[in-house]
Amino acid sequence: MNISVIVSTYTRDRWKDVLRCIESLKNQTLKPYEILLVLDPIDDLVNFYRDKLPNYVKIVKSDGFGLSKARNKGVLESKGDIIAFIDDDAWADRYWLERMVKNYLDDEEIYCVGGKIIPVFENGRPKWLPEELDWIVGCTYKGLPEVKSEIRNPIGANMSFRREAFEIAGLFKEEVGRHGKKLLSGEEAEFAMRLKKIMPNAKIIYDPSAVVYHRVPKSRTKLRYALKRAFYEGYSKAILAKDYPLSMESRYLVFLMHTLVNKILRLKLVEVFGILFVVTLVGLGNLVGRIR
């Protein structure tokens, strides 16, 4: 079973992150068949990374701008039976691919596996950011299963699919997903829900033993970033709600409200402040998305 790993980036600023990510893929206990780096269609960017990266990395120029377009181009250019995705500012535990692929070998009905994403804060976790809100920084958050479980969708920084999933359901929807600093999201959720709609027996699994680490810079721990990210989360979910029921979000909101009460009783007021502000901005973004 051959594995293609797709990394994408849109900037030179993360070249050290990209090198660390590539190195972690090279050191896997189960070696990838190929590593693809997909770049925005800017010649200077392509030439920059071509000079920086080892020859075994396949440089691919995207057909357009944005994360969804980059991932789609990577899928089309890849050759593996399993297509895995990791963020440019993340790095993989050395057993990542081995543990991820074991799921596909054990059960032919598994079409997608997502793993655990552990945040690594450059300047420490901010006091207002409880683990329940770690989705803001693209990581696994409290409220998700803690053991291997079937889920609705993975988180994009650590996920993989059988190639057949794309042959059955098509590619990622390009109307959602990151575009430079525009914080739209949800392309992996939309794709996973589309796959299940077409193929109800397809299993989507969360395996917390398949681990990647995600660098969280100081800029992403500022409340201003969090509120912007929360607004776009709500906006993105409004787009998805036009075609899919979002029962998972409803259950998470109930969980978060119970958590909020518990934190109030324990006088964790800074975390209460963080949750309230984030939930408010998610709601505002969702309202704007529905109106538009």
Q: Could you please describe the fold and organization of this structure?
A:
Strands 1, 2, 3, 4, 5, 6, 7, 8 and 9 form a nine-stranded mixed sheet that branches. By secondary structure, the chain is α/β, with parallel strands linked by helices. The chain has helices at 15-26, 43-52, 67-77, 96-106, 163-169, 187-198, 223-241, 247-265, 269-291, and strands spanning 3-9, 34-39, 57-61, 82-86, 90-92, 110-121, 149-150, 158-162, 203-216. The chain has one domain (3-221): Alpha-Beta Complex (Spore Coat Polysaccharide Biosynthesis Protein SpsA, Chain A).
Radius of gyration: 18 Å
Supply the CATH architecture.
Answer: Alpha-Beta Complex
Low-confidence stretches: none
Biggest sheet overview: 9 strands, mixed
Beta-strand percent range: 15-25%
Estimate the global geometry from the Cα principal axes.
globular
Distance between the termini: 44 Å
What is the count of structural domains?
A: 1
Q: CATH topology, anyone?
A: Spore Coat Polysaccharide Biosynthesis Protein SpsA, Chain A
Mean pLDDT: 95
Content-based structural category? alpha/beta
Give the H and E element order: EHEHEHEEHEEEHHEHHH
Supply the number of helical segments: 9
For CATH, the homologous superfamily is named as: Spore Coat Polysaccharide Biosynthesis Protein SpsA, Chain A
Q: In CATH, what is the class?
A: Alpha Beta
Tell me the total number of β-strands: 9
Helix content: 40-55%
